[in-house]
Amino acid sequence: MSASDNSNLPKQNFAPLKNDRLLRALRFETVDTTPVWMMRQAGRYLPEYKATRAEAGDFMSLCKDTARATEVTLQPLRRMDLDAAILFSDILTIPDAMGLGLYFETGEGPKFKYPIRTQADLDRLPTLDVNDSLDYVMRAVTSIRTALNGQVPLFGFSGSPWTLATYMIEGGSSKDYRYTKGFLYSNPEFLHQLLDKIAISVIDYLDAQVVAGAQILQIFDSWGGALGHRQFIEFSHAYNKRIVAELKVRHPDIPVVLFTKGGGLWLETQADSEADALGLDWTMPLDRARQVLTAQHKPLQRKKAVQGNLDPATLYGSPETIRSEVTLMLDRAYACGEKTGYVANLGHGITQWVNPDNAKVFIDAVHDYKL
Amino acid sequence: MSASDNSNLPKQNFAPLKNDRLLRALRFETVDTTPVWMMRQAGRYLPEYKATRAEAGDFMSLCKDTARATEVTLQPLRRMDLDAAILFSDILTIPDAMGLGLYFETGEGPKFKYPIRTQADLDRLPTLDVNDSLDYVMRAVTSIRTALNGQVPLFGFSGSPWTLATYMIEGGSSKDYRYTKGFLYSNPEFLHQLLDKIAISVIDYLDAQVVAGAQILQIFDSWGGALGHRQFIEFSHAYNKRIVAELKVRHPDIPVVLFTKGGGLWLETQADSEADALGLDWTMPLDRARQVLTAQHKPLQRKKAVQGNLDPATLYGSPETIRSEVTLMLDRAYACGEKTGYVANLGHGITQWVNPDNAKVFIDAVHDYKL
């Protein structure tokens, strides 16, 4: 059963969208100014986030608390003129729902009690009914979309199968992906079985987020860049491509952004998908990215917008530095002469040490840039 | 005083080199087969290394123990038909000699007791007399070169200024380079002062290694890939370029390999140096790398060989997998039709979990490949 015919979700009459700048840019339509948002914009750099999080308890409790997840999603929009909101959640919700026992150790990243290391582990993984085991995510999406009241579009998101598989196999984050790459090189069929299971859940998960109210989707392939060039195609991109293709069948009008951290070398590969935009970290000059994508573009294929790519550490700089870095970035983004097809963002999530005033300088600098 | 006129090093009459395959490949001369070595080839994947290390005590004691540092350098050459040896040492010897108090915590990476965070910290950094404070390194080089008896050429090496600066400022390894990038964006002059001091020591350090017996040099820019594209040029490459240029003045016949992990996107930038070869991690296809370098090549400029780039995790695979991955790699390395100018290697150091027999399969597969 596809999530889209699940009728236990209330049919909402959401308010009409007031700010469609970001959606227009992705469709290569004219925009009055450059749309901008920040990955992890609801986060620890905001004192009001820390206060709400403290009320909720641990991180996953905050994700599962509809009212507070809604509250933290909206917090950055009260401070800054952001052009999108993004569901407050975690990329590890799917493996958590699959029963891997997600927990967080203080000072360390996320961990899983039951990593996937054997065929028996793999066979035990359930096929998720996302509207059941991940109903808290869908409730948050609907609640946030309602609370936004049409102010800006709402991103839903998921981790990519490869990125989720690394966590599921390693049992947490990793420097060298010892076990995951061990399977890749010694038992690739095992890894493909796992990736296939995850991909099916990711499709249903993103589909359900759209039904619940998400207006745009992003796939985070946070660790795609750890793969070899051929292995990226086989073990990461192939699954992302399939997910995007299936989502385009179910929801042709919902744009999808594909973000592979460290994937700048492989833009040609990533262009081979129905994604509307590719996210870029700060290692890739935007003018070169747009050149590559233009050169790669084939008739009848969806034209690829780009999103990114300021180094989040830029926000440690002075307002003057932030403004000059933004100008240099936007000069490159529009060097091709096409004043659309671009969404400004950081090249990765904003860090907890950023002064929120500096984040606002970034957002305002993007909007102040004359197209 | 340059290290090269330091007369307290004994003038050695080293044995003539029997295997110059690697040096020939770097000069684009014909080779009988592809030269190959492995980064971190003297390491924890070898039981004999672990035994010698246990005798020496901690890691730095092993580096400072001339006989044992020589022993571990030679160990992998007894098992495998390697075409180069590399000095057994650490990239953090320079900051250690500068008084930062290097120590290793079990299960964690290297740490510094006294990180560089203020102008006073920076001003206190001594100008190193490398033959004094790093005399143990030079003794090891001479001892290893003597023990090699001309079997294969000996690599000396250093960390790049940027990579060393990240450790010196963060006080250890880092995920996001919070403090280093904080300086980069808020007080770049401070970072440049530090990089300048480090670069001066790196030049003297590599110079002294050549005088002591190193026949080829490698600069490890392990964290260069963390920088933005413009910042890589200003804060990493500019210093590497200067170091290589100065070494070429002092030792015109000593080849230099520049290895920036995650630097595949910036080969054009890296080509703008007098380095003889560029090292590549596994994200960059070798055929594309050689195409870029050929397109970039200017008359009178030193032609760039390439070194790399098998994913070290490949060695977790079966012998058949290793052999087929090696074949695919070498096919790409020589796709340009030029059967030289290439040194096979891993794209990063061999990991402690590799079966030494699999490392041997890799080395033999490279040599068995028909040019």
Broad structural category of chain A:
alpha/beta
Q: Helicity range of the residues of chain A? A: 40-55%
The value of Rg of chain A in angstroms is 20 Å
State the end-to-end distance of chain A.
46 Å
Biggest sheet statistics of chain A: 7 strands, parallel
CATH architecture grouping of the domain at 48-305 in chain A:
Alpha-Beta Barrel
> Which ranges of chain A are low-confidence, i.e. pLDDT below 50, for 5 or more consecutive residues?
1-9
Number of strands of chain A: 9
Strand content of chain A: 5-15%
Order of helices and strands of chain A, N to C?
A: HHHHEHEEHHHEHHHEHEHEHEHEH
Measured by residues with Cβ under 8 Å of the partner chain's Cβ, the largest interface is:
A-B, 37 and 37 residues
Average pLDDT of chain A, to the nearest integer?
95
- Assembly of the depicted chains: homodimer
CATH topology label of the domain at 48-305 in chain A: TIM Barrel
CATH class of the domain at 48-305 in chain A: Alpha Beta
Number of helices of chain A: 16
